[in-house]
Amino acid sequence: MRAQKNLLLFVFTFACALGVIAGSYLAGTWRAREELRQQGQRQLQLMAPDLQTLLQKYETLPFVLGFQPDLIEALAHPSDAPAITRLNSTLQTIQQQAKVGAIYVMDRDGLTIGASNWDQPLGFVGKNFSYRPYFDAALHGRAGRFYGIGTSTSEAGYFIAQPVYRNGTAGGPVAGVVAVKISLADFERTWRSSDDTIALADSSGVIFLSNRPDWIYRSLHALDAATERQLAHTQQYTGQKITPLSGHADLFVTQSVGQLGWQLMLFPGQSRVLRAGVQWAAAAMLLLACAAVSSWALHQRRRRLEERMASAAALRQAAAELDDKIVERTQQLRTTNQHLESKYAKLQETEHLLRSTQNELVQAGKLAMLGQMAAGITHELNQPLAAIRAFADNARVFLERGQGEQVAGNLGHISEASARMGAIIGQLKGFARKDETVATVDLAASVRASAFLLESEFRRHAVALEIAASDGIRVTGDSVRIEQVLINLLRNALDAVETAERRVVVIGLERDGACALVSISDSGEGIPEQVVAHLFEPFFTTKPSGKGLGLGLAISSSIVQAMNGQLTAHNQVGGGARFELRLPLQTEGV
Ligand code: ADP
């Protein structure tokens, strides 16, 4: 459907273009013809007076000749040979001076008695021209004018004739006729350079002078019978068959000249008309091509503009959609955020709960540990206490005996023993503290304090405790909790070596990169493979009930993690377990 429409449009446009080109051609030729017509008219207007002048120049010559005594004399005495000779000589002289074709004199019968060309083979003397109209006119006292081909010379010419009066008196009886023949050949010669066809036709439409030789003695239209008869009678175009000119150009300009009804005609060259038409058509084609190209460019431009507008609209729509999406998404995010915030609040609550629970747990673990240590501590306190009593009893005896020196010695021992008890109790008091206090912790001191609290236990079980602690290693945290971890690890080590042959626990302290490393190695059997995975799980224990709760390592691990540290365990190559506690070293200036 669309293709058909396009085809129709194309055909229509093509037809229009053809029409415009054809119209331009016609307009071009019309204009050129018009121009040529005007040009021709101007040319003819210039040419016609020339011809007119040429014809008029000799108008009076025969009239004047009519009064020549030689002519009158000869006509009066045609058989007077000297008179005829004088006549011929006069005519010849005048002809040469006036530069005309010929001058001749005829008697009343039309017989030529004298002529300027008397001495030439085709001279007129003896010829009769009574059939020529100019002779007839002059014989009747009028001026005779005629154009025709000479019957003797076969040369065309313009003849002017005047009567010769017998007594030399105008209006008197006519003795004869004098005629002058003028050649128009020179005039015609000036036309030869012209591109256009120039022709001179007589009143009956017969062309007798032209720059195109094939046009001469042709008629513009078919001659009627009367005219043909007339031509035959006057022998105007002696021996020439007048045929109509066929296919001559219709475009010509004409100007009448002279007194014989002549028409001077100009046929401008058709090629110029044609060329103008073709030029106009070519210009139209060029214009059409320009129009086509510019309309195509315009069309392209409009299409591009439309496309750009469409894409801009699409972009706008996309932007609007994006805005909508952003609004929607923002709303969603806000909702999610609110949701998260409430979740976070709940989480914080839970964390708080967990922390307090954890604190409770740590405290519980600590108290449990104290419980476990109670036997050892009791023993530790009992020893100095028994010693104090013994020293006091002995002092009393020494006092009774008046041995003051021994009393003083015993009192010194009592003081020493009570100081030791004070130290033990002090440690326990500090350890039982519930609150967390974060401060700088000297790890060597913590190691020693932990060892001190378990000293009696180790001794009781005949386990050697070796301490290899470097001084000056400090971390940030709660010393009590660190000691809680160390005591827990030392107790586990003690339990592990209890049944072993070699009973050694080594506690080391050193720097390990940015961390402080506390290691507790024992000479026990190591951690069984099935236990490794569950080591730090709460309530995991391999010990008989009453001895272990399975909370020690779980609590220790959580304490260490809270201080950004790490608690790991592995078995040593030579046997026994090794626990490693890493805490970040206190940075300089803190
Ligand atoms: P508990 O000491 O109450 O059992 P822990 O959490 O302290 O609880 O220890 C968990 C378990 O890890 C112990 O039951 C024991 O089997 C194992 N364990 C801990 N320390 C050692 C060690 N030094 N050598 C071998 N096994 C150990």
From TrEMBL:
Major place of residence: membrane
Membrane topology: Multi-pass membrane protein
Cellular component per GO, a single term: plasma membrane
The protein's name in its UniProt record: C4-dicarboxylate transport sensor protein DctB
Transmembrane region(s): 280-299
Originating species: Rugamonas rivuli
EC code(s) of this entry: 2.7.13.3
Pfam family, one: HATPase_c
Top-level taxon: Bacteria
A single MF term (Gene Ontology): phosphorelay sensor kinase activity
Domain Histidine kinase residue range list: 376-587
InterPro entries: HATPase_C_sf, HATPase_dom, His_kinase_dom, HisK_dim/P_dom, HisK_dim/P_sf, Sensor-like_sf, Sig_transdc_His_kin-like_C, Sig_transdc_His_kinase_DctB
Chemical reaction(s) catalysed: ATP + protein L-histidine = ADP + protein N-phospho-L-histidine
Keyword Transferase listed: yes
The UniProt record lists the keyword Cell membrane: yes
Subcellular localization: Cell inner membrane
Coiled-coil stretches: 330-360
Keywords on record: ATP-binding, Cell inner membrane, Cell membrane, Coiled coil, Kinase, Membrane, Nucleotide-binding, Phosphoprotein, Transferase, Transmembrane, Transmembrane helix, Two-component regulatory system
